[in-house]
Amino acid sequence: MVSLWDYARRAKTPKQKFDTVGGASSYALELTKRTPQVSLTKEGGTSGTLRIGLSWRMRTTDLDRSGHRKLNAWRHPLQLLKPAEVVGHTQGLVNVDFDLACLYELKDGTKGVVQPLGGLHGDFGSPPYLKLSGDDRFGTGSGETIYVNLDKSDEFKRLLVFVYIYDGTPAFARADVVVTLVTGDNTHIEIGLTDPVPQARSCAVAMIEHERGELIARREVRYVYGFQSEIDRLYGWGMAWGRGFKDGPVRA
Asked: In order of start, what are the domains of the chain with their CATH numbers?
């Protein structure tokens, strides 16, 4: 019989995932400060579709809406059995809206962004060869995904994946946020948004670009206090930005 202590200890143990999807073996690579990049070329990411997914859960140690700390899970062990999203949503943070986005620059000089804001969902079969699907306000497993057409990877100069908080208070420091890249052969590459800055509203997560004949994904995890325009300035994209709203046009 598994003790409560064993259950809690295992939940905190870093994992390397092995699972089976459609009969094919898949495993997770984690990009960290010590191992910040991976060759998508060597991991089967040269053709087909690269899926970039966003998921998160609010930390169970956060304060509740009234400012009191949550009841200790050791005194209330059933808390450990609650789904993380349910626990997080009881703390007055359901209005936090993490969004997944991607700045792109094509080799012909075309620049732009794929994001929920302004309905800029992109196109998979035509430039920019990126397509955003879904806008999940609760970070469930079926949340936002960007599909990258790697059959057109030669058209890409660089892609910058980032996450921003559209609505609600800054909450990177109160959530476990993960961006996962899944290659065509089902290799999962995970990038955790670690060492969060409490008041940050955006985070540059990963850069994808060609280096020495290979397509490389490099961990960034750089927080900024502003939004897309500040990410743009940080990486020298040189685009003009205006105020925008979801499900409507971006406006100045």
From this structure: 24-235 (2.60.60.30)
Look at residues 217, 224, 230 and name the one whose alpha carbon lies nearest to residue 172: 224
Give me the residues paired with residue 21 across strands.
Answer: 24
The residues near 186 (Cβ < 8 Å, ≥ 6 apart) are 21, 22, 24, 25, 26
In this structure, which amino acid lies at residue 82?
Answer: K
Residue-wise pLDDT for 136-180, tens only, equals: 444 444 468 999 999 999 999 999 999 999 777 788 998 899 999
Identify the DSSP state of 42. Answer: T
Nearest in space to 18 (alpha carbons), one of 8, 10, 29, 7: 29
Contacts of 73 (CB under 8 A, 6+ apart): 8, 60, 79, 80
Interatomic CA distance for residues 113 and 101, integer angstroms: 7
Please give the order of strands across the beta sheet that includes 202-211.
Answer: 37-39, 214-224, 202-211, 156-167, 97-106, 111-114
Q: For 25-57, how does the pLDDT look when each residue is reduced to its tens digit (9 = 90+)?
A: 456 899 999 999 999 998 877 789 999 999 988
